[in-house]
Amino acid sequence: MKRSALRISFLSILATIMFGPLLWLFVSSLKTSDEIREKPFALPETPRFENYSNAFEQGNFDRYVFNSVLVTGASVLGLIVVSSLAAFALSRLEFRGKNFLLLLFLVGMVIPTQTYLLPLFHELRIIGLFDTYFALILPYIAFELPFAIYIMHAFFLSLPKDLEDSARIDGCSTLGIYFHIMLPLIKPAIATVIIVTSLSFWNEFLLASWYINDEDLATLPRALSSFATRRHGVDYSLLLAGVSILTLPMLVLYLVFQRHIISGLTAGAVKG
User: Fold this and answer.
1) Which of 72-86, 199-213, 231-245 has the least mean pLDDT?
2) What is the 3-state secondary structure (H, E, C) of 102-143?
């Protein structure tokens, strides 16, 4: 009983530490700016749900949300296509140097993003992609490619060779095997990659602040940063409503699909 009580107490404290700031964020987003400054830990006197509509109307958040959805969606789609093809080739096909190529991809997981910032900045300007959506989409795909290949490669290796052999006997091509047999069988890996990388892309700030100058192309994290540093003062109620808009979709996504993340990572690690 004592161990159980200690475990419950420890988990309760841990949950409070983890979810306390989120709860404060959502509660504070329903206050006025004066209430946030004067009574930061009190409940709102009158919940102001209009803070959210004001954030869209006054802060132009509808444009920033659209940009974030577009960049995140395109990046995830491109990543799934490229990484699944690469993982399939590296796991199921035989060609010289494939182990070295796989190692080269995986080395990308340990190289800090900051080392690429300046060279990539100049490269994007030279090829004319600076200050466009592709200035974020292409680097996002490249930076998450090692992780996605690692997860999918392990799943492809776990699939029985007999499936592939039977398909070839029936006259199925290599691409046919990839599309019709292998791809449907690695859905847990695809789900894991989609969820984890969506969280990363949606919340990414560093590249968005380096490679995007046009406010009309700014993603939500970048826009919130600009909104928080305005010279003529900050409307904290709108700022916190904007942060809530940024946080809530990915929080819901993670809570709904957390089992897929855990099972996908675990299965990939065990089977690989």
Assistant:
1) 231-245
2) HHHHHHCCCCCHHHHHHHHHHHHHHHCCCCCCHHHHHHHHHH
The helix-helix angle for 134-158 and 236-271 (nearest 10°) equals 30
Nearest to 159 by CA among 88, 104, 100, 110: 88
Sign of CA dihedral 210, 80, 243, 261: negative
Confirm or reject CATH 3.40.50.720 for domain 58-271, answering yes or no: no
Confirm whether pTM is higher than 0.70.
yes
Spatial CB neighbours of 33, under 8 Å, sequence gap ≥ 6:
234, 235, 236, 237
Q: Give me the long-range contacts of 38-45 (CB less than 8 A, separation at least 24).
A: none
Residue range 174-215, pLDDT digits in tens: 888 888 888 888 888 888 898 889 989 998 988 998 999 888
Rounded CA separation 142/78 (Å):
10
Average pLDDT over residues 47-59: 80
Every domain of the chain with CATH number 1.10.3720.10 lies at: 58-271
